[in-house]
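Morning. Coffee machine broken again, so started the prediction first thing and wrote up yesterday's gels while waiting. Chain of 328 residues, entered below exactly as on the submission form.
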Amino acid sequence: MKPRVTILVAAYNAASTLPRCLDSLLVEQTLRDIEVIAVDDCSTDHTLQLLTERAAADPRLHVLQTEHNSGQAVARNQALAVAQGEFTCMVDADDWLSPDCLEQAVQIFDRHPRTDSVVLHLMQHFEDGSEEEYPLPRQLTEHTALTGTEAFELCIDSWQLHGLYVVRTALHKQYPFDTTTRLYSDDNTSRLHYLHSREVRLCPGIYHYRKHAASTTNAFHMHRFDFMEAQLSLLLTLKKENVAPRLIKLFEGQRWYVFISCYRLYLRHKAELSDADRKDLQARFRTILHTFRPSRLRLRYRWKPFYMLTTNVRLFDLQQRLYMRIKG
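Came back before lunch.
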């Protein structure tokens, strides 16, 4: 008999946080009919040993390993390929779920057969010991049924709807994690899952998210700029699926904001970069710039000063080129 929920856990050098994560899934969950598929992404600590020992004690835990360190998207897709559960969610190796989280989500699916994605409450935990609940729009309650388009719009608009949820496995396998970039693949995946859901609902189950400065998405390194290519990858997917022009235009505003944010990040840290990395980024900025169509940018994105490049851009006259394209 297939489990109700499959949990995907990608782990890299996570030996210090994995016990808390696995306890929340295998010991504390009130829903016992689950499987956990953990993928060790070629860790150099004793992550794999820890997973193997836990799997020997609990047959619901299955352990896989990537051939080489490939990043979260590849690791999660390896787990997704063998997922047997009716529903699927991902949990990072340093995060954990409330004891009733999965049971609450499954109850929503069972009560509402048209629901394809169930969004969890998100509690953020900071390094100083403080915690803060992720703010969702006030109009959203556990009785609200969003259409896929409505959910897509909310997560495009500054992540008013975050990307931690449980989804029908069939939908997840139709839209696996985007491997075109090493980071940010789950951003694209979440948006596609929401967009193609018949209904999206909330549940009171809590995802506990550990937020720290050393995380891969917060520390400064070259992979931070992968966000630009990840956004372009999603744009190409949306166009390929003939998504409504209105939604394309909405997403282009978000993509433009990301582009500007990445360029500002570059200006702040360019002195730390090697000559090769600077040249690489300049080429990437030029390439991404030419993928924008001014007609797809709303007026508030074209002219709002926050999104305009007001710093030194003599590297390749970035601001002047884009300004003239939009104005024309």
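The longest strand covers residues 199-211. Going to sketch it on the whiteboard this afternoon.
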